[in-house]
């Protein structure tokens, strides 16, 4: 069968690989129909993703059609359209449950492997996935289902933060993850501000997500926010950049008693001014991936028309052409979400 394979950094090929088949009674053979390309994929392509082992079939934002099911599968059947939860934990690897999985925190399983990152993903004609990782919808289009994983990351982060409609929130980074956070903050009803050095991205957030106050200069944002908030600062800051300097600066943007939620990540240390942290009695938390319930809830919200995703996809491509488009998309500063059509 055909697949998109990262052979090495900056080398992506459209080639034949071995066919996939059902592996046990709880597995499902699926056909990817639409695959979203995210920052992780671009970083892998550029050789900047630390968890990638080449060669690798990329793709973890997936809208798929069920082709065949194992004899014990009851939640989906052939012909169903599904989003894929790409996080493979202890249960999916046949291991004894780790401390995190025992407590239901499968999003940060100690043995976590993500499709298209630690193991082959979905940019292929068909692949096998455990049935419990499929989230069915009878109404959504495949391209909507391919957005669920991105939206779930923001949805999980906002739920974890515990913010309410009484909060004033700053989101740092207006890429897809930052936008998914904003979309979920809107569900809560909090007032949202956005900082991104890319002017086109803050304008996108303003146009499609109703953000009134946007900033592009990290050097002046503190004074600008105090002016808008009558001398106060936001009660919560979400950092979606994964940039060390940006993550450290989040502590300067939050008001006394506020919360900082780090959604983006990297492998470097971040430095905290302990005096500032204690004096303001700040709360710091991380948010990683998403939980099964986040996928289920988002599908319901989209089916009910509460979440509109019509503006999310800004580029589309046929998958065989991705070998040339990938380098263009990876440098496109105005790109929000590009998807690949495999149907």
Description:
The protein is of the alpha/beta class. It has two domains: 2-147 and 313-341, Medium-chain alcohol dehydrogenases, catalytic domain (Quinone Oxidoreductase, Chain A, domain 1, Alpha-Beta Complex), CATH 3.90.180.10; 154-286, NAD(P)-binding Rossmann-like Domain (Rossmann fold). 29% of the residues lie in helices and 24% in strands. It contains eleven helices and 18 strands. The strands form four sheets. Strands 3, 5, 6, 9, 10, 17 and 18 form a seven-stranded mixed beta sheet that branches. A six-stranded parallel beta sheet has the order 13-12-11-14-15-16, sandwiched between helices. A three-stranded antiparallel beta sheet has the order 2-1-4, with helices on one face. Helix 11 links the parallel strand 17 (315-318) and strand 18. The longest helix is centred in the middle third of the chain and has 14 residues, at 148-161. The chain is globular and about 60 Å long. The two termini are 14 Å apart. The model has no long low-confidence stretch (mean pLDDT 96).
């Amino acid at each position: 069968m055909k697949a998109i394979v990262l052979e090495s950094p900056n080398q992506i090929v459209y080639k034949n690989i071995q066919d996939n088949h059902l592996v046990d009674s709880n597995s499902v053979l699926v056909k990817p129909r639409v695959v979203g390309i995210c920052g992780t994929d671009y970083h892998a392509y550029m050789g900047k993703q630390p968890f990638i082992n080449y060669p690798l079939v990329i793709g973890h934002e997936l809208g798929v059609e069920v082709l065949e099911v194992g004899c014990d599968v009851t939640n989906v059947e052939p012909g169903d359209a599904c989003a894929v939860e790409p996080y493979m934990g202890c249960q999916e690897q046949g291991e004894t449950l780790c401390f995190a999985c025992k407590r239901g925190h499968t999003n940060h399983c100690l043995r976590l492997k993500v499709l298209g990152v630690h193991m082959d993903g979905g940019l292929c004609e068909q692949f096998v996935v455990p049935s419990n990782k499929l989230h069915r919808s009878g109404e959504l289009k495949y391209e909507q289902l391919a957005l669920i994983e991105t939206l779930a990351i923001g949805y999980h982060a906002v739920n974890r933060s515990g913010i309410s409609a009484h909060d004033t929130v700053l989101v740092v980074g207006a890429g897809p993850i930052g936008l998914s956070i904003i979309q979920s903050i809107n569900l809560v009803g909090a007032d949202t501000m956005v900082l991104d050095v890319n002017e086109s991205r803050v304008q996108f957030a303003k146009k499609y997500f109703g953000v009134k106050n946007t900033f592009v200069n990290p050097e002046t944002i503190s004074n600008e926010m105090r002016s808008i908030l009558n001398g106060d600062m936001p009660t919560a800051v979400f950092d979606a950049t994964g940039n060390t300097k940006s993550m450290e600066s989040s502590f300067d943007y939050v008001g006394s008693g506020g919360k900082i939620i780090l959604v983006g990540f990297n492998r470097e240390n971040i430095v905290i001014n302990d005096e500032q942290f204690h004096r303001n009695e700040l709360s710091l938390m991380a948010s990683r991936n998403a939980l099964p319930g986040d996928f289920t809830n988002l599908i319901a919200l989209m089916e009910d028309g509460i979440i509109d995703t019509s503006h999310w996809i800004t580029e589309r491509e046929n998958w065989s052409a991705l070998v040339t488009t990938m380098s263009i998309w990876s440098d496109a500063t105005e790109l929000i979400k590009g998807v690949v059509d495999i149907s």
